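To fix ideas at the outset, we first show an illustrative case, written as a sequence plus integers encoding its fold:
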Amino acid sequence: MSRPAKRTRFIAVTSGKGGVGKSTITSNLALLLSISGLKVAVFDADIGLANLDVMFNVTAKHNILHVLKGEAALKDVVIPIRKNLLLIPGESGEEIFRYCDAEMFERLIGDAGVLDDIDIMLIDTGAGIGEHTQLFLQSADDVIVVTVPDPAAITDAYATIKVTARRRKDIKMILNQVHSPKEAHNIFAKISSVANTHIGPDLRLELLGEMTRDDKVAYAVKRRSSFVREFPTARPTRELQAIAQNIMADIDRSVTVQASESGIAGLFKRLLEQF
């Protein structure tokens, strides 16, 4: 008999290229959301470069592939990071999608109780134009594209937006490592203008927020620490807190669904529907 569960909000964080701070933003954003009282899970879906275990300074003995293959239970894979924050380690490779079938889904449903009280699942994906990454982007409730003020990064971010917009019309952005909010808004305005011309006015592109360049962020990353914890009053921390507040404003914690629609089982149910 199916049991009720929280409706999980699935948020995919992606980028056009590597090195723009996507995983750093994802891990620190997850920490801030969990501190606010939300139950948060982070799924490391950066196929080919799964590294959130490093970002959180934990050791992953198993990952989601072991669960999909029936070699481990979900409870053996999930890593508690702190109160209200869990990590689901990913698999470095595309093999994960070989096991996206009905049998796999039934196995996840059996383990669903481990994650059926999750309010938000952040999905740290790879570059957005990849076929497998697009599966995650189309399955998510929200897509956030991260970029920096580098011409090549902006071009790649726009390519991600263009490909993603073929199947969804709502995309959010975070401008990272900017010198000022004005620079972020100017860059976003240019991207929006190009998108409006070449993709169409139906695309709802939103600037979720910006983060100022600060050496404290790089310092924390090298220490395998969270910059929001190391430097709680730093400008990037305050900017990411504002982004977290924007996200929380969209969360309705009163909605319940069946367990098969929530947590990791709910995510893979959506992925299966993409095939």
Q: What stands out?
A: The radius of gyration is 18 Å.
